């Protein structure tokens, strides 16, 4: 069974308590349950990880690239949080590892502060899901499965 890696960046461990009007009341544990349920429905294994450290995300993207190349993984759902708007390193890791990534944002970043309108991830991502709440995680996983079916 192939795997999808779900990566969550800084402050996503605060889901449910951080700005619930913006991000909703679901916790990270709720998101991980949603991803596990979607994985069962889609017939893929799901692994969820969260970190507040940019270098850990880079390392995990490199690892995912190796797993994709070995045929064991479909790709990554990446909610890079604030690193979306600041990290050339994540852009370079995605490109360098040749890992298919669906960039995900719970909120509509384009309806928020102007500094959130630019993404360093988007040019390297296979696709982007924005502003659909935590349901975007399942949609992102579905997208990875469907994109793999097209290959």
Automatic annotation (TrEMBL):
Pathway: Metabolic intermediate biosynthesis; chorismate biosynthesis; chorismate from D-erythrose 4-phosphate and phosphoenolpyruvate: step 3/7. It catalyses: 3-dehydroquinate = 3-dehydroshikimate + H2O. Signal peptide: none annotated. Keywords: Amino-acid biosynthesis, Aromatic amino acid biosynthesis, Lyase. InterPro entries: DHquinase_II (IPR001874), DHquinase_II_CS (IPR018509), DHquinase_II_sf (IPR036441). The record marks 18 as: Transition state stabilizer. Substrate binds at residues 79, 85, 92, 106-107, 116. GO terms for biological process: amino acid biosynthetic process; aromatic amino acid family biosynthetic process; chorismate biosynthetic process; quinate catabolic process. It holds the Pfam family DHquinase_II. Its EC number is 4.2.1.10. GO terms for molecular function: 3-dehydroquinate dehydratase activity. The active site is at 23 (proton acceptor), 105 (proton donor). Homododecamer. NCBIfam families: aroQ, PRK05395.1-2, PRK05395.1-3, PRK05395.1-4. Belongs to the type-II 3-dehydroquinase family. Catalyzes a trans-dehydration via an enolate intermediate. This is 3-dehydroquinate dehydratase. It comes from Variovorax guangxiensis. The gene is aroQ.
